[in-house]
Amino acid sequence: MKPGKWNGKKKAAGGFQKPAFKPRPVRRGQLIAPFGVGSMNDFRNDEALMCAGLDEWFRSPPEETLRITEERLAARLNCSFFIKPPDFSESEGGPKYKIPHVRFPLWHYCPRCFRMKKTTLFGGQPVCTEQTCSKSKHGRRMIPVRIVAVCENGHIEDFPFKRWIGCTCASEYDSRMFFKAGRSAASLAGIKIECEACDRRRSLAGAFEEGALGKIDVQCCAAQPWLGRETGVHSCSAGLQTLQRGGSNIYFPAVQSSIYIPPAHSSETDEIRRVLDEPVMWSALTSGLEDGKIIKMAAEIVARMGQVDATALAAAAQARLDSSGTPNVATTEEDFRRQEYEVLRAGVSNPTDELFVERLDGDQYDWLGHFFKRVGLVRKLRETRVLTGFSRLVPKTDRGDPAVQRLSIDGSINWLPAMEVRGEGIFIEIDSDAIDSWIERSKAPGRLGSLLTEFNNRRLIRSLSARNIDARFMMIHTLAHALIKELTFSCGYGSAALRERLYCNLEDPNQPMNGFLIYTASGDSEGTLGGLVSEARPGRLQRLVEDALRRSQWCSNDPICMESPGDGAMTSNLAACHGCVLLPETSCEEGNRLLDRGLLVGQVRRPDLGFFHGAPIT
């Protein structure tokens, strides 16, 4: 992928003249996360650029080959289709798409003489022309400053260096600013900002403290550089916070994902599909419906002509009719997950479809059948990941939240950037009766009471809504982590190559979901080689769970880990650390939060606390 930079003049509507591009490599998948619209990326030659909005991604309608169709997710996100970030090709006659970037931050400094210059969003990289710095006629290349100012509403702007030191110069052109880094100390106190023109200077000590910029009366200007706006079109009352340019909390992509669910006719046999795909046969079946239903006599006549079973033909034709309308739009994330959950637990028998699940009952797994109701061998799956927006400082995912920034100015853009990945996985449905018996026996909710209260209090302080987390959810989540850890030893995948997808209802107890999907998906291949699925076969899954639980019984950080009163991000974990169940952030849906291996294997003094208490673990 070769992003370019805009180098044109600003138009009134936020668009730009045709830019000049310079090759800078970014992979296609990275343009969804972590280097999507609004994020900063460091390139070679000391350049820091920000991925521009969707308005300038294409100068003509994108090609059909870049479109991704996922009706269920498109209906959920209220858009028409999705677009894969274009793949740059250097071959003759190949596409020459380039993703535009803007230059941010704007302030740069010379690493030799420390002189500062401010460029524009669409300008080139500044150079220092002082004779003491470079004898080249092109000057010495300047590097971007390492700090920026961000607000909770997702806006970002340059750190106010002039206001910070109290510079009285009329403009950047009148001032002579210097960024003198690390001259007296390695801390922020060692970074001095000076203006020779008005003889003002100050170190950056205290710049990262909360409210530091508010004390010098610096307000957020609602800047949206990725949309070409150095100053926003609306006011913003949120306070600015100083952050490192590469800080992990400077960009949180809001990514929605979906596991492809085949249409209702995915269970058709090849013979029945051949009959239904014939226009004459389909017309004969559907020309005379009764209350929207296939007439039995018509199905029998067509079945004799096609030499197939009449009952199976009528059922398949009716399924096509029922699924041909508008897809069932899930109003909540839980409803959206429930659609996938029901398909995974029921199984999908058509190996030619993009979701192929072989369902096995729990009683085929000996002692494990007391805990697992069903196991799904997901031989094929397709996942669609869509970038819907982003936030800063605090991760937020609701598109309706004003803190989630938009990806474009033009409201008529009816697509979002996305990518498809294919792979395989293991689906496990945990027996609800076993969960109810465990909760009643172990009194597990009592162990989590204060932890979950503190977790929700911290969410409320950060302007996030409280979540209805319970012991069942934490147990299922921790089990998924323990199995992923063990799978890295048994099937050869790295832990970062495996992902979890949790199915656990938190809102409606009358519609239980007690399961999870562990899967691997790659955007660079048409699937994987079956190593993950093979670990879920009877005989092997029992050993996998035994080994995972045995490792969970003792951690290298015990007894401190097991007896922890609360640890991890937002104090949301109990017995969980990098020595036992924590995973790479990309593998966990919850950001390594809400984990407790004590809910799996119990404690030394309370072995019955564990869900698997009584399992034959040696």
What is the gist of this entry?
Among the domains are: 4-103, no CATH class; 263-323; 348-401 and 415-609, no CATH class. It is 23% helix and 20% strand.
Description of the structure:
This protein has helices at residues 71-77, 161-165, 212-215, 270-276, 279-286, 296-306, 310-323, 333-346, 432-442, 444-461, 471-490, 531-534, 540-553, 598-601; strands spanning 4-5, 40-43, 47-51, 67-68, 81-83, 100-103, 107-109, 116-118, 127-128, 140-141, 143-144, 147-151, 156-158, 177-180, 192-195, 200-203, 240-244, 252-259, 356-361, 372-391, 415-430, 498-504, 514-522. The protein has 618 residues and is of the alpha+beta class. Among the domains are: 4-103, no CATH class; 263-323; 348-401 and 415-609, no CATH class. The strands form 6 sheets. Strands 4, 5, 18, 19, 20, 21, 22 and 23 form an 8-stranded mixed β-sheet that branches. The protein has a 4-stranded mixed β-sheet with strand order 1-6-3-2, with no helix packed on it. Helix 4 (270-276) crosses helix 7, helix 6 packs across helix 7 and helix 11 (471-490) packs across helix 13. It is globular.
